[in-house]
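input
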Amino acid sequence: MVMPQDSPATSPAQPAWRARPARASRLVLAAALLALAAQGALAQDKTAAPAAAPARIDPKALAILKASCAALAAARTMSFTATDTYEHAARNGQPLYYTVKDQVTLQRPDKLKVIKVGDGIPDEFYYNGKVVMAYVPSEDLVAVADAPPTVDQMLSSAWDKAETHFPFADVIVSDPCDVFDEGLKSAFYVGQSQVVGGVTTNIIALTTDHAQGEMWIGAEDHLPRLIRTSYPGEPARANYETAYSDWRIGDPVDASAFTSAKAAAAKRIAFQPPSAAGGQDASAAASQSQAK
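output
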C-alpha cells in the first residue's frame, strides 16, 4: 500500500543550500578543507568498507504494522464505520470519485453484518455462520446462499459466487498481516499525524507485489484510521481510500444483529455476479426470476 521508498519522511527545517552568515565563513572554509583531507585519506585506503545500503523494510514501520494486525486479530468482536472512496474514469477519461459508507459489525469466527449507505443504492449484508443474505431494501429483494463456517472462507466464497468484495476485508480476516508475510517488498516510517481520525496516528508506507499505499494507524490503540492504496498493475492505475471511524472493540453483540426478518421475507433473486444478469438492474433480474 504505498509511497516510493525514497520519499522523505519530513521536510528539513532548514535546507542545506540556505546561505550562511558571513561571520561563519572562516569556520565553513576550515571544515571544507578538513573534509577534503578526509576524502583524500579514504581514497588512499582501498580497504575501507563500503557504506551499507539502506534497509528496504524499516523495522519501525514493520513493528507498527504488526502491532495493528495483532490488535485486530485479537478482537473477538468489533464494529466500525468504513468510508471508501474510489476512483473511476468517466467516458471522457476524467477521473471521478465515488464514496460508499459501510457500518460493520463482526463477531469471530462466523458472524458479519454490513449496512451500506451513502452514494449508490443502499444495501445490507448478513452472515450468521450458515447462510449469507444480500438485501436491497429499496427494491425489497434478497439474494440468499449457503455459506462456509468462517468469515475468512465466506469472504472468498462470496467473491467466487457473486463477485462480492468489501474494501475493508483485510481488517476483518483472522490474520490481517497474512497479505504482507511473503509479499512485502518495502516498508518505511513516514511520521505522525494529529489530524487523521481525530487521534495521533503513525504513518507507514508499504509496497507489496501488487499494491502500493499508506496507512495511518492509531499510536495508542493500533487501529487503522486511514488506508490509501493504488495498484500499479491496473490499466487505469486507480486510487482507493478507506477511512475508519467509530471503532468499538470487544463489546458484546446480540446474535440477532446478524440476521434480518425483513430481508428473509423479501423477494428472492439468485446470488450471482451482476454480469450474470446481463448488466440489468436488480428489479429487472427479479422480474425474470419470478417469471420462470
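quick obs: The CA atoms of residues 16 and 275 lie 57 Å apart.
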